Amino acid sequence: MSADYYCGDIEFFPGIGRIPFEGIGSDNPLAFKHYDADKRVGDRTMREHLRFAVCYWHTFLGAGADPFGVGTRLFPWDKAASPMDAAALRMDAAFEMFTKLGVPYYCFHDRDMAPAADTVAESERNLSRMVERAARLQKQTGVRLLWGTANLFSHPRYMCGAATNPDFHVLAHAGAQVKAALDATVALGGENYVFWGGREGYSTLLNTDTARELDHMAAFLRAARDYGRSIGFKGRFLIEPKPMEPMKHQYDFDAASVVGFLRQYELDGDFSLNIEANHATLAGHTFAHELQISANAGLLGSIDANRGDMQNGWDTDQFPVDLYDTTTAMLVVLEQGGLAPGGLNFDAKARRESVDMEDLFIGHIGGMDAFARGLEVAHALLTKSRLAADRDARYSSFDAGPGAAFARGEFGLEKLRDFAAAHGEPAPVSGKQERYENLLNQYLLR
Average pLDDT, stretch 369-395? Predict the structure, then answer.
């Protein structure tokens, strides 16, 4: 047992110790250049601002498979004698990595942590055994659970959806999984619970009653909320938008769609959004756009930190390295007052060609550094530049007089017509886009 990190009976990442902060002068690929966990940025440390989490699925189960080929990585735990033995070794490896990397959180699907069995009861027992193991490791290491969720998309039974499936028997199985996953999340002190509706959508309207499916999805979410509250879950429930893939059209298409759905079914008191960067770009939006729309509604709960490839038309789940993206994301987060109880979960995977175990660390280190630098730049822009003041000034005509009256709902169409007639053609006012973009670059390049 190392004094610096958890290590079980087997060390799965030999030669890699606790990842140090060495600063921008370092050439060590296994060291942080910008993420200094205890460094204060404003009133909080980087650790408190960013609340990093490692995802269980891509990191410890993602062997590099893609639609055209099987996996390229063989993990040590894949050689275990049984699926449950593999699950135990995988969990030991996970907590070794969490602690060496220095992240405070992790996230999991039920089927990541424990394999499915032939019956509901057996599957529940498998998960319960692994939850006991995770609880011991959490206590030993201090690593916490950011959120749990249920995999309601991989099993063949969910080919036509889970909560929106036209067969009630399938929906009941989905309910059983969510119940067990909520039990696990509460047992492990999870701060949130996520729904990703990868199969909640349709391939053709010819065989789909969208009204009934949306009603059923809302009823399913209410049932999950009510059960969660009944067993003591006090955190936020999170919906993760994505426009398509695997379904042609998914009901949780983008942030605006989810906000409208939550408000229509009066779920916004308990549910917020978990925004993924790659899903934003698949919807035709920027990462910052989806964050801003969620924050505008008061419903930005958490972030899946990754990126896509602009030349690939699918969800590539790459580690985030674009400082423009991380800075504009952190501008939204800082202006809404932070992410807690959410965080930044690296829903990202090493490339198919990256087959060394250290590549898992290098990918996370790069993502953590990119968001740490984005945090610093965003904070400087908000506290040292005129960014926010100049943006507010663009709307100053609504701060007093007729503009303020209109914003309060006290200036109708007749008054708008009379004002326009009395004041003639408005003078053009520049949006100064180039100035704003140059300002961002100015602070990025310091």
Answer: 98
